[in-house]
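#structure-requests
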Amino acid sequence: MLADRAYDADSLHDIILEQGGEPVIPPRRQRKYQHAYDRIAYKARWGIESFFAKLKQWRRIATRYDKVAANFMGFIKIAAIMLWLK
């Protein structure tokens, strides 16, 4: 499970481990015990979040002008291509 520092709680870690998952949550700085996490996987999460932030700069996508799902998805693809070409 990928999450940011706000979700760093012992109870959440225990639940994730009980269900067979691996928590990828960086520890808060004031923690006495700094647990290990996969830094590479966490960096990939940041890349995905920044992509969605860039997509929301397109007004048509952020406000969802298109009510038809096919049209909306088409504009998401166009915006993704434009971002990829930059």
